Amino acid sequence: MRKGLPMILVRVIVGLVFLTEGILKFVHPAELGSGRFAHIGLPFPYVLAPIVGAVEIAAGAAVILNLFAGDSHRDPDHEGANSSREAFWSISASET
Question: What is the pLDDT of residue 15?
Fold first, then answer.
């Protein structure tokens, strides 16, 4: 089994949850979008619900596509994984 397979599965599942919840806010607005937001007392539900839905769709797609992941995809056993952190501390220590 590949080392990265569990992380890929988690990323896809979390991304699909965000994506479907965002889409459902537009498909069923009375139950899951602005109607729900109004029912729980959030301000400006007809403005807030589409914004939240759009952010959920964008975030879900970004998680599935592994955008904005930074160094989270690196293997901790990789020899250069902590090089930027080590470089920072060596510079800080030499300046004092």
Answer: 94
